[in-house]
Amino acid sequence: MSAQLAPQPAPTQVPEGTDLIEWYYEKGFSDGLPVVPPTPEKLAAMLAALGGEPQKVECRVPPRWGVLTREVLAVNLVMAGCKPAYAPVVRAAMLALTETAFNLNGVQATTHMCSPLLVVNGPIAKTIGMNGGCNAFGSGNRANATIGRAIRLVLLNVGGGWPGDLDKSTLGNPTKYTYAVCENDASPFPPYHVEKGFAAGDSTLFVMAAEAPHSVTNHVANDPQGILDSICSAMSTFAHNNAVSGGHCAVVLGPEHAATIAKHGWKRNDIKSYLWMYSGNKFRELAFEHRYGKVYNRSLPVWYRRDLDSHIPAVPSAENIHLFVIGGEAGRFSAFIPGWGHMTSPVLREIGGGGPKDAGPRCVDGTCYL
Amino acid sequence: MPQTYDPRGVVRADARALARRVGTLEGLRVGILDNTKWNANKLLRAVRDQLQSEHQLAAVNYYRKESFSRFADPALIDRIRAQNDVVFTAIGD
Amino acid sequence: MHDGFSLESLGVPTAVIVTSTFVHEAKVQRAALGMEGLAPVVIEHPLSSLSEEEIRGRAAQALAQVVRVWRGTHADPPTPQ
Predict the structure, then answer these.
(1) Model ipTM?
(2) What range does the domain containing C8 cover?
(3) Which 30-69 residues of chain B touch chain A by CB within 8 A?
């Protein structure tokens, strides 16, 4: 696939004085916000950051299966407002999203509101100025904002995932504008990618089809159990998609919560295990008491008991909980981020490397199945 | 003169022909592929029942996808190919 | 559509049943795969919330189309507006 080249339509000349921002709007190339009109100079800089070879095919983007050449990627990167330094991150994200395990086709088309969440680890986050601290999931940071936006523009323009057309999401959600962060490197725990077998000096990205973050407040507890019980509460509703569809989710610890938990000597695995053990629902809730007919639910693992009072975990395993430390120093808040379900698997891969690290027997098809 | 750029990329696929069609359905092996979306199985069974009442089929084979959202496992596709002359599948909704 | 494409490519005539809201997507998918001749079988949307009797009605809608797909006489369905 990487040896293929694909032609690209030549740029169009427009009359002097044309309002270029309006032109891109009228053509239907915008996510709803004004785009930056590409110029030959901006495109050249972006292409150089991608390694040249404008017609080199990086991947094809479902559900339209548009061919993403470096040239086309450069156009979307400029439109999003990215700096050239961000280009390798966005490219790595598109490669991760088009891994078979992620099932981008399904994520693009679903009626669920999920959007790809991107979490960057390693030195590149600081180098390009990403925000993993105060307001990390919010606005105000160019790298976070435009990296996430570039991904969305590619999913729209190249992938054809336009709302009401091939994107059938009933409600959508604001993270479909942008959803890119990095971990806070002042975390008391090893970073996520180190937990997963990378070296601290490697730069990686993690993608997961995700709902928007659900805030978890706890300004009372001064021990791990109290804080984690609040997060468990957020995980124990049968409203989010994991409850009925299995799959993976993410948990974000704010730094104050992380500091308290670390002070008591708890490690990443302790946190994930506690969360998994003490969250979930009863089967009767997922079955609606069989009011509408007998419910089995094939989306959940066969090994779950289906008695009315059987405990149903929020996700099938503690390893399906992806734990990050993100956020500002002040505020006793964390967040639960549900996923889409078993229909998609998150992907973790190196940025700029040859591909995902072989972390041992859990890697399938060269992709780390987490 | 200002230039504008197309952010969409091309869609490019080599044209692929369909399989050869059949004439009669009598004596054929019919495969049914259930993609496990809600009510697909009920729909497929109803079609199957009607089909069997109208034609003398050599066999009717039922298969289920592991996940409604992903493409069927290639091994499953190959098994279906080997065991059937025609197939119907549901549901894209 | 992808599974239908795979089976047709391997020589097995395959009728792919979709609901009316899915026709547009089905056509986009087959274009991306290069199999423009893969005409889907269309039943009225929805399917997931129907009663048993309504499902039987949908099955009746589908059956004649399925047989036509196998015989090569099934016309490409229009995309509902």
Answers:
(1) 0.94
(2) 2-71
(3) 36, 67-69
